[in-house]
Amino acid sequence: xxxxxxxxxxxxDGVGLHSGRPVRITMSPAPPNxxxxxxxxxxxxxxxxxxxxxxNCHYATTIGRNGTRIQTVEHLMAAAAxxxxxxxxxxxxxxxxxxxxxxxxxxxxxxxxxxxAEQSAPRRSVKIxxxxxxxxxxxxxxxxxxxxxxxxxxxxxxxxxxGTQALTCAPSERMFIEEFAPARTYGFLKDLGxxxxxxxxxxxxxxxxxxxxxxxxxxxxxxRDEFVRHKILDLIGDLALLGRPVVxxxxxxxxxxALNFELVLAVQRALGLERRPAGAGLAxxxxxxxxxxxxxxxxxxxxxx
Length: 305
Ligand SMILES: [Zn+2]
Description:
alpha+beta; five-stranded mixed β-sheet; binds zinc ion
C-alpha cells in the first residue's frame, strides 16, 4: 500500500463545538511522509498531528505548540484515517476545528470532494507485537496482536437512553463511511451549564450533538447505538495521532480521549516510535497532565465530547 494525500485544497466553515467561535479550515495536499499537519493562519510554526503535540485531552483532543492551540481535532483525524489519507495540510483561522454536525461525516464528504491521490512512498503500519493495556477498574483499553485492525467497544452509562452498548467490528473504508463517520458526539443537558462555565460546549447545539435530556434523546438518533459508534469514531481519530495505521485488536470499555491518548503513548513507547528523546520538552508534559487530572475525567457519556 502507498501513502495518500488529496488532489486539491478544500475549505469548510463552521463553529467550534467548545469555543463557539466561527472558524474556517482549508485542507490541502501534502508531500509523502509529512503526515497530517495543522497550521494556525496567524502563526508560522506548523503543529504536527502527533502524540508530542497533544496538550489536552479532556472532552476533546487539543494539539498545540508554543502557545498556539487547536482544539477538537479528533473527528477530522478520524475522517482522514478512515479514508486512508496519510498526508494533509490543515490550515485553521481559529482555535478549534469546526464541529460540523458533531460527527466525522462533513470531513469525509469534504475529503471525498477533494479526491485522493496515491503517492510514491509506501505506507508503513504499526503492528502490535504483544498485548498493551491502559486504564483500570471499569475504564480501560487494551490492544492485542491481530492480522487486521479490529475494534471491540463496550459503553456503559446509567442514563436509560444509553445503557450498555457493545459493538465489535473490523472497519473497512466502506464500513467506516457508512457505519461510524456519521455517528455524532453527545452531551447531557444537565451538564451544559457547568461545561459552559468552564469554557466547554459553548458552540454545542442540537445541530452538532445528540442532546440527552432527563427523559431521553432530544433530537433523534442516526443509529440505535449511535453513542458507542461515536466512541469508536473518537478512538479511530485519536489512534491516528500515531501517524501510521495500527494493526491490532483494540478492546475498550468506557474510555475517552484521555485514555485513548494513554494508549497512543503506551503503543509509541512499546514500539520505540517516539519522535523526541524521552524526557525532552513537550513529550513529557502531556503525560503528566493526563495523570494529574486523571481523577477529573468525566463520566463516560461526557467523555465523548
Ligand atoms: Zn467525538
